[in-house]
Amino acid sequence: MAKYRVNKTDEQPLRRVEPDQHWRLLRTGDRVSVRLAPGFEASGLVDAVTADHSVVWVDLDGGRGRTLLHCGDGVEIRPHGS
Fold first, then answer.
1. Which residues lie across from 37 on neighbouring strands?
2. CA atoms within 13 A on the CB side of 14
3. CB atoms within 10 A of CB 19
4. In the chain, what percentage of residues exceed pLDDT 70?
5. Sheet of 76-79: strands edge to edge?
6. Which helix (H) or strand (E) holds 24?
7. How far does CA 72 lie from the centroid of its chain?
8. Alpha-carbon distance 43 to 60, whole Å?
9. Are the beta carbons of 43 and 64 closer than 8 angstroms?
């Protein structure tokens, strides 16, 4: 009798994600445009950046709050005006 096997994703190895070059140029206080999903774009100020530039906190304009962005999340973050 064959054994039923389920591939558990929690047992899969993690893959390393590297931020794009423009993420490496971001600094606290930079004005940026964030595209979270098609049709949803917001502007804000970079509040914090991790040492490896893979995670960025952005304080969104208009009182929308502070959001955490990871380079592996599929979001676009660009310096304002580019």
1. 40
2. 4
3. 19
4. 80
5. 65-70, 55-60, 40-49, 31-37, 76-79
6. helix 21-24
7. 6
8. 6
9. no
